[in-house]
Amino acid sequence: MKRLLKLSLPLVLLVILGGSWWLISHRTAPAQTPQPMAKPKEPHYRPLTLSELNHDPKLTACSLIYYAVKHSKIQRWQEVADFKLGWQLDQYPTENGIKSLVWPDKQIKANAKQLQPNWFALSKTGAVTYHSFIVHSFRDDMTLTTTLPKIIQQLNQDHAATKVRQLRSNLVIIAHQKTAN
User: Fold this and answer.
1) What is the pLDDT of residues 141-163, one digit of tens each?
2) Residue whose C-alpha is closest to residue 114's, from 135, 130, 94
3) Does some domain include residue 181?
4) What is the pLDDT confidence band of residue 16, given thresholds at 50, 70 and 90?
5) Organism's domain of life (predicted)?
6) Whether 161 contacts 152, CB under 8 Å
7) First and final CA of the chain: distance in angstroms?
8) Residue 93 lies in a domain
9) Containing domain of residue 137, as a range?
10) 83 assigned to some structural domain
């Protein structure tokens, strides 16, 4: 019996040590609160604002031209639809705001300015009137009237703010002085 005890004691110790090691190595970590998955960042869209347009005349002009090309039903505004060529604006102050003649191509030369261009008037109150001369006709200009806040709303609805901001580099403004009558 002594002999059996001598042989079984190391075996029991081995089982106890092995079992202890197994319990320690396979012990589960305390339950952790799962961390919420970080949402992938969506590209940040910065809408146009009236304040921004009031402080950036080029952005205002680009917004008005973009709106005319994309949303006016006046066919002749498609003549200035090449956004890569850009535009040249001749701006004239009026009693109520600014009148802007819109020429296609930011590098247009004076000798190419033969036909009356499309133009828009922006009043101090934010009213916008688009005009287009009807070629080979003795009728009045075609017009469209809207407001700057409505244009901003439409461009933001179109998610066009980023595109319009990029168009500023394709715009040349020639500011003319008000002439005395």
Assistant:
1) 789 999 999 999 999 999 999 99
2) 135
3) no
4) confident
5) Bacteria
6) no
7) 132
8) yes
9) 50-175
10) yes
